[in-house]
Amino acid sequence: MDFEAWLKKNEPLIDWSLFFRQEQIEAIVHSSRVLQKESPVVLDLGCGPGILGKLLTDQKPTTQYFGVDGDPLMLSSMKHLLSGRNITALQHNLRKAEWSQQFRGHFDSVISLTALHWLSQEHQNEIYKSAYKVLKPGGTFSIGDPYKPEDPQERKELEELHYKYSATQSGQTWEEFWQNFFDKYSMKEMYTEYHAKKGYQIPFEGSDEGYTLSSHLKALKGAGFSDVSVFWKADLRAVYGGTK
């Protein structure tokens, strides 16, 4: 996969205020093994405007992409961005397990990018159980989110690295990111709606800093996953998951 070329073409999709974003996305794609399949069937939890969906369907046009989100504006943006591709937009509240009942054993991979930390740890643990149920045998679950180091010294060192790195980068606000995104992909009316609603329309009940990686791995094992591991981490962000 020529990830660099894809980034140049789709730069407004990448929120550069989240440092090491490129590596995090690449780690999700690699650990999910989606591109190794002939016609992968993929579920994206908290898909937002379909950033991962665009990457996967650009690289593997035979991908069947299902994006689930609770915000109808994000799903409208996703359908616009991925128009003409094999996609399904699903509006569901991920806090309620009912979303998964119609998809038992349906997906080759479940993925998520910077979304599940919006939920409480209890709801995240329930989502892990639901993800296990909707996967085919041998299917993969790959999550990219912030994490909270258990060692205070590790956290201190990572925070210092973050501030050192951020001083060399020109970040952007969330408002600037969404304005660039909607402008690039000819969705100015959607940006007006987004601005009027003053942001993402899902209640935040989680933690900006996420939860410890050991708690995630324990919950994944408890949900039934094997080969549970942290696939990548940097700058207080990680990619972790397992296999059914």
Structure description:
The chain is α/β, with parallel strands linked by helices. The chain has a single domain, classed as Vaccinia Virus protein VP39 (Rossmann fold, 3-Layer(aba) Sandwich). It is 41% helix and 21% strand. It has 9 helices and 7 strands; from the N terminus they run H-H-E-H-E-H-E-E-H-E-H-H-H-H-E-E. It has helices at residues 3-9, 21-32, 51-59, 72-81, 121-134, 152-166, 174-184, 188-197, 213-223, and strands spanning 41-45, 64-69, 87-91, 107-113, 135-146, 226-234, 237-243. A 7-stranded mixed beta sheet has the order 3-2-1-4-5-7-6, sandwiched between helices. Helix 5 crosses helix 9 (213-223) and helix 7 (174-184) runs antiparallel to helix 8 (188-197). The longest helix has 15 residues, at 152-166. The radius of gyration is 17 Å and the shape is globular. The mean pLDDT is 82.
Highest-level CATH class: Alpha Beta
Supply the number of structural domains: 1
Catalogue the unreliable spans: none
**CATH topology group:** Rossmann fold
* Overall 3D form: globular
User: Measured on Cα atoms, how large is the radius of gyration?
Assistant: 17 Å
- The count of DSSP E runs of length 2 or more, i.e. the number of strands, is 7
Average residue pLDDT: 82
CATH homologous superfamily assignment: Vaccinia Virus protein VP39
Return the string of H and E elements. HHEHEHEEHEHHHHEE
Our estimate of the beta-strand percent is: 15-25%
Range of helix content: 40-55%
In whole angstroms, the N-to-C terminal distance is 25 Å
- Based on helices, strands and strand pairing, what is the structural class? alpha/beta
Give the helix tally. 9
